[in-house]
C-alpha cells in the first residue's frame, strides 16, 4: 500500500469526521449560516498566510527543479485566484480583516511553522498533503456546485475539486511516497506525528467554524 494511503487509513476516524462535516455539507447545499462562513473566512485567510510560507518552504526544499514546478504553479493559484476569492468573499459578507487568531488557527499556524522550520521536505509535505487531500475529498462529491449557490460557497468548492486540483494532491502524495522508503524510522515517525496532528486540526477547524 502507498505510504500516504497508509497514513490516511491510520487516522480514518478524524479523516471521515472532517470530510463529512456538517460545515461542508451545509456549505455545499447553501444552508450554512453566514456567521459560520464569516468566522471561517476570517480565520482561514490567516491560515492561508502560514500555508503560503509552508508551501514556499517545500518549493525551496524540493530535490530538483522538476519536483518543485507543480508546487510553484500551485502557489500561484493560492496567491492568485484563491487570494482574490478571499478578498471578494470577505468584502461581500462584510467581514473585517483581523489579526485575532482563534485557538485552532493558532495551533495550525504553529504546526505549519514547525514543519517549515524543521528543514525536512517530508515534514512539509505531510502537512501540505493533509490540508489539500482532505479538501479534495469533501469537495469532489459536491462538484460542480449548484448553479444558484452564492459565489462564496460555490467557488470554495471549485477551488478544491476538478482535474487541476486532483493533480496537485496526486503530485504532493507522489513526492512523499517517493521519499518515504529512504527515511529513517525516526523520520517516518515524525511525518506520521505531523500528519496525524494536521488531520485532527482540520477536524477541529471545521468544529470551531460550525460552533461560531
Ligand atoms: C484549515 C484549512 N485546511 C485546508 C485548506 C485547503 N486549502 C484550507 N483553506 N484551510
From TrEMBL:
SUPFAM superfamilies: Heme oxygenase-like (SSF48613). It catalyses: thiamine + H2O = 5-(2-hydroxyethyl)-4-methylthiazole + 4-amino-5-hydroxymethyl-2-methylpyrimidine + H(+); 4-amino-5-aminomethyl-2-methylpyrimidine + H2O = 4-amino-5-hydroxymethyl-2-methylpyrimidine + NH4(+). It is an enzyme of class 3 (hydrolase). Residues 11-211 form the Thiaminase-2/PQQC domain. Its EC number is 3.5.99.2. The keyword Hydrolase applies. Pathway: Cofactor biosynthesis; thiamine diphosphate biosynthesis. Keywords: Hydrolase, Thiamine biosynthesis. It comes from the Bacteria. Pfam families: TENA_THI-4. The keyword RNA-binding does not apply. Gene3D superfamilies: Heme oxygenase-like. Catalyzes an amino-pyrimidine hydrolysis reaction at the C5' of the pyrimidine moiety of thiamine compounds, a reaction that is part of a thiamine salvage pathway. Thus, catalyzes the conversion of 4-amino-5-aminomethyl-2-methylpyrimidine to 4-amino-5-hydroxymethyl-2-methylpyrimidine (HMP). Belongs to the TenA family. This is Aminopyrimidine aminohydrolase. It comes from Ruegeria spongiae.
Amino acid at each position: 500500500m502507498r505510504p500516504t494511503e497508509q497514513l490516511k487509513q491510520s487516522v480514518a476516524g478524524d479523516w471521515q469526521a472532517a470530510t463529512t462535516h456538517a460545515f461542508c455539507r451545509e456549505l455545499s447545499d447553501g444552508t450554512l449560516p453566514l456567521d459560520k462562513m464569516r468566522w471561517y473566512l476570517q480565520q482561514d485567510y490567516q491560515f492561508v498566510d502560514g500555508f503560503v510560507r509552508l508551501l514556499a518552504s517545500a518549493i525551496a526544499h524540493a530535490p530538483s527543479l522538476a519536483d518543485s514546478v507543480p508546487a510553484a504553479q500551485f502557489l500561484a493559484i493560492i496567491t492568485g485566484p484563491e487570494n482574490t476569492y478571499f478578498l471578494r468573499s470577505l468584502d461581500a459578507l462584510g467581514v473585517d480583516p483581523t489579526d485575532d487568531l482563534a485557538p485552532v488557527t493558532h495551533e495550525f499556524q504553529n504546526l505549519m511553522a514547525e514543519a517549515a522550520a524543521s528543514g525536512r521536505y517530508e515534514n512539509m509535505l505531510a502537512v501540505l498533503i493533509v490540508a489539500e487531500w482532505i479538501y479534495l475529498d469533501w469537495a469532489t462529491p459536491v462538484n460542480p456546485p449548484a448553479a444558484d449557490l452564492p459565489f462564496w460557497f460555490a467557488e470554495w468548492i471549485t477551488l478544491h475539486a476538478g482535474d487541476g486540483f486532483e493533480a496537485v494532491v496526486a503530485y504532493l502524495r507522489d513526492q512523499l511516497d517517493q521519499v518515504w522508503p529512504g527515511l529513517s524510522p525516526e523520520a517516518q515517525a515524525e511525518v506520521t506525528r505531523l500528519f496525524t496532528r494536521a488531520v485532527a486540526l482540520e477536524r477541529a477547524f471545521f468544529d470551531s467554524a460550525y460552533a461560531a
